[in-house]
Write a structure and sequence with these properties.
single chain, 921 residues, 57 strands, 31% strand
């Protein structure tokens, strides 16, 4: 091994232009030793020795690679040395591999001890190497002039230091000597500390050639420059008044940056730093921060984003062309330009005036008020954030959205490219230039009074879905809108733009779909009104039957006539009101060519809702004005007189039983449960109403109809519904009747959270506690609870504080939380205890209802508290409803006296409009 390391030393002194790169071999050596370390991690002494060896070899690798070579160096005869070194490295690699194999199969302490001896031998060989050559293995301290002289005497031996270096400069030190010594350090395996804070120091030292160190600490009242430093475990540069710049341009890797706050610095150069494992927070006085090589991805498979935040305070310029993700907070950057940054929510560039972000990707929300409130120029391009490696999100549109925010008084130029789900330009009072290309589903341009024209170059097709809206309102000075590539929008609103005279929508002829790609249905909307669209003439049609026949016609240069197909399609699919107005009509002529004022309508004798009046030049005329109107009188639902009895079949049932219907003093129908009648019913069981209800109902109805009476009878199984729940305790997954903690609190959910205290640990008390909690909690307005044997919980629906016998909804389920801590609201539960609802069984009874299908005749017996409208024998129990007990006034679906009966009425509307003159276009 010693011979092998001698070859390594010879090679380390000379760099050959044609030599094999030994970095890969060192990497391989490091990898194998690192593997050896992990295999014997349990033995602390071996682990420590291996760690030290690994670090030393790595530092030597860096140092040797960076030792300069005089161009005139004689390299003759070294080729054979190179070959020998190659053979020696191969031999060492084989030896390490054998050692790893032996360690993997080591089964005794003696074998492990032998491996420890081998590792110690490797370390001893390395120590011999360092001791016999230009590698200094003693800590260096330079705090006095005599220590400085000693360091000077060491000469080039300090190129590589296998120990720590501590330098404290004083004002009395020979600064030139110190600078010369500091320039010789190339690699230090230990910590490096340089302090120069004493008042009176006028010339400061500099590690001009230091490439590597463990913890590198610089504390000086001067600009900091570490031009060659490429790696360190920790870099700690102290903030001092003299630190007006920090330059570490070759630092590629560092585990910890202890301080990046420099209150007087006007530049910070970390241009070679590639990654940092934590959030990166930088603060300088002003100037430039260079992160030219910095990336925000990790080294994991597929290089995912780290998600770390980059915060830069004070710098007016940040150079970071390779960052792709993470939130950016940069309070003083004037022109953020990050060409591949995908954006992140809540990013902010507080003082930025010009922002260019060409790669905003995925569901990023850009709000200009928080991102760049002072920006006069903002340009972004939206890209699809779909995960190409998965199909799970293919139906989700992952694109950015943009919003200027409220009352933006700085933005002058806005450029939007690529695709966005929505773009909202609202209240940008100084905006004079707005350009949009690509696509968006929703564009809103509102209250931007400095805009004089609007040229839109986008489509509504985002990924494969063509859908969306365009809203342009309240823009004081816009004179024209051109959107010749836009089609497939279901909402078009262009209103309250008082200077708007012309529209151009060359491609707009269809509505598209909903933004999820589904069929649009009746959800369209159009409103074009309150602008300055003009017509020179509106020609009225001739009255019906009048010759010659003259067609209605609108003559306008506003661009509306070219939109006829789209307007007609939108009106046909509108969900509500539609309006299209020509705001300034110069002249209206009748069918004879005479000037006209008065009623304008599509044809003679149309409904009043389709008429409008034109009085004078410059008055508007609505091409479309369709509105449902407002309800002045509410609709009244039809309600028929009816009477209901609960129906129970007893066990004492014989051929004399009957059900008779007598709604108005005369028996209209009667079913006798004779053997002849019931024998015709398949599966008939007297006590089981299910077997005969439909047959009896049909016979009673048939008799009523044959008597010419206008009544409907129904026998229905929906009466008095309840639900019975089987709730059980389990301990370690097994059923247990006594698993609870007596006197403790139980929290559960049943139509809202309920809380109760359980007196004992058994399931009987558990059921009782649940019932009490429901009856005393928020759910008591709609539910009543009781217990049944089992034990079980029986829940009954309520209405207006009493039993709702005609409840038709569903019953909620119980849910119980798991144990959390003993003092929590689940303290009834022990650590391994759970409670669950195992079954829920609904039960219900029968009713019979007779309904009066006329509104003119009062069937008196159907009124509550009148003579019974139905009768039976003792084997069948018919029970009329009792107000306040089995019936409330609101339950008119089962009981309505004649005084409440009504045929109903439609709602009365005012303001209904049905104007549609699109055929004149």
């Amino acid at each position: 091994m010693k011979k092998l390391f001698s070859y390594l030393l010879i090679s380390s002194m000379v760099v050959l232009s044609s030599c094999t790169n030994y970095d890969d071999q060192f990497d391989d050596l490091n990898t194998q030793i690192n593997t050896l370390k992990s295999q014997i991690e349990g033995f602390s002494s071996l682990s420590s020795g291996l760690t030290a060896l690994q670090g030393t070899v790595a530092s030597l690798q860096t140092a040797i690679a960076n030792i300069p070579v005089t161009p005139a160096t004689d390299i003759s005869g070294l080729e054979s040395t190179q070959a020998a070194l190659q053979a020696g490295l191969t031999s060492l690699a084989d030896a390490v591999a054998d050692l790893q194999t032996s360690l993997a199969s080591a089964a005794t302490a003696a074998e492990v001890a032998a491996l420890s001896t081998s590792l110690a031998a490797v370390q001893a060989d390395l120590d011999d190497l360092l001791a016999s050559n230009n590698i200094y293995s003693t800590a260096i301290s330079i705090t006095t002039n005599s220590e400085l002289d000693f360091a000077v005497a060491l000469g080039d031996k300090v190129n590589i230091v296998n120990a720590a270096v501590v330098i404290t400069q004083s004002k009395d030190m020979d600064a030139a000597k110190l600078a010369g010594v500091m320039a010789k350090f190339r690699s230090v395996t230990g910590n490096v500390t340089y302090t120069a804070t004493e008042t009176g120091i006028t010339s400061f030292g500099e590690f001009t050639n230091l490439t590597a160190g463990a913890v590198v600490t610089i504390d000086q009242k001067a600009p900091v420059s570490l031009p060659a430093l490429s790696s360190a475990t920790t870099l700690d540069i102290k903030d001092n008044t003299g630190v007006t710049s920090v330059s570490v341009p070759n630092l590629e890797t560092v585990t910890t940056l202890s301080n990046l706050t420099f209150t007087k610095a006007t530049s910070l150069d970390l241009s070679s730093l590639t990654r940092y494992a934590s959030d990166l927070t930088i603060s300088v006085k002003s100037g430039k921060v260079n992160l030219d090589s910095f990336v925000t991805t990790t080294t994991a498979t597929n290089n995912p984003e780290s998600g770390k935040v980059i915060t830069v305070s004070g710098a007016s310029e940040v150079v970071a062309p390779l960052i792709t993700g993470g939130k950016l907070i940069m309070d003083s950057v004037l022109e953020p330009n990050f060409p591949v940054w995908k954006g992140a929510n809540s990013s902010a560039f507080a003082k930025a005036t010009k922002v260019v972000l060409p790669s905003i990707t995925g569901q990023v929300t850009i709000n200009l008020n928080t991102w760049a409130p002072k920006a006069t120029y903002f340009h972004y391009i939206g890209l699809d954030g779909d995960d190409a490696t998965s199909t799970a999100d293919d139906k989700i549109l992952k694109f950015p959205s943009f919003d200027t925010g409220a009352a933006n008084g700085n933005l002058e130029t806005l450029i939007v490219g690529g695709s966005s789900t929505s773009v909202d330009v609202d209240g940008a009072t100084d905006l004079t230039s707005f350009t949009i290309t690509g696509s968006t589903h929703a564009l809103t341009v509102n209250n931007n009074d400095a805009l004089t024209s609007l040229t839109l170059g986008h489509t509504s097709k985002v990924r494969a879905i063509s859908a969306g809206s365009l809203v342009v309102t309240g823009n004081e000075n816009i004179e024209s809108i051109t959107a010749d590539s836009l089609d497939d929008i279901s909402t078009l609103t262009i209103s309250s733009n008082p200077a708007l005279e012309t529209l151009s929508f060359a491609a707009l002829n269809s509505l598209g779909t909903k933004t999820d790609g589904k069929a649009l249905g009746s959800t369209a909307s159009i409103s074009i009104t309150g602008n300055a669209l003009a017509a020179s003439l509106i020609q009225l049609p001739s009255p019906t039957g009048t010759l010659p026949a003259v067609a209605g016609k609108v003559t306008t240069a506003s661009g509306l006539t070219a939109m006829k197909t789209y307007i007609s399609a939108n009106v046909a699919a509108a969900a509500g009101a539609s309006k299209v107005t020509i705001d300034d009509v110069a002249n209206v002529k009748d069918h004879l060519g005479a000037d006209y004022t008065g009623t304008v309508e599509l044809a003679t004798n149309t409904a009043a809702s389709a008429e409008q009046t034109w009085s004078a030049e410059n008055d508007p005329i609505n091409i479309v004005d369709i509105a449902a109107g407002t309800v002045s009188t509410a609709a009244v639902a039809a309600l028929k007189q009816k009477n209901t009895y609960s129906l129970v079949a007893g066990s004492a049932f014989d051929a004399n039983e009957f059900i008779a219907v007598n709604p108005n003093g005369t028996e209209l129908a009667k079913y006798n449960f004779t053997t002849a009648n019931t024998g015709a019913i398949t599966g008939y069981v007297a006590s089981d109403i299910t077997t005969w209800a439909s047959a009896v109902e049909a016979e009673l109805q048939s008799q009523i109809d044959n008597n010419g009476a206008d009544y409907t009878v129904s026998i229905v199984n929906d009466w008095g519904r309840t639900s019975t729940y089987d709730i059980n305790m389990y301990l370690d997954g097994s059923l247990s009747a006594t698993a609870g903690a007596a006197g403790k609190t139980l929290t559960f959910t049943f139509d809202g959270t309920q809380v109760g205290t359980v007196e004992s640990n058994n399931d009987d008390d558990l059921a009782s506690a649940i019932a009490r909690a429901i009856n005393a909690g928020d759910a008591s307005d709609t539910w009543s609870a009781a217990t049944a044997s089992g034990p079980k919980v029986v829940v009954t629906p309520l209405i207006d504080g009493q039993t709702n016998y005609n409840y038709t909804g569903s019953f909620p389920n119980f849910s119980f939380p798991a144990y959390s801590v003993a003092a929590s609201l689940t303290s009834y539960l022990e650590l391994s205890n759970t409670i669950r609802q195992d079954t829920k069984v609904d039960s219900k009874g029968w009713r019979i209802t007779v309904q009066n299908d006329t509104y003119a005749i009062n069937a008196a017996n159907l009124n509550r508290a009148e003579t019974a409208s139905m009768s039976t024998a003792s084997g069948i129990a018919l029970t009329e409803l009792v107000a306040g007990t089995t019936l409330t006034d609101s339950q008119t679906n089962i009981q309505a006296d004649f005084s409440k009966a009504t045929a109903g009425s439609s709602a009365v509307l005012t303001g209904t409009k049905t104007v549609n003159l699109t055929s004149w276009m």
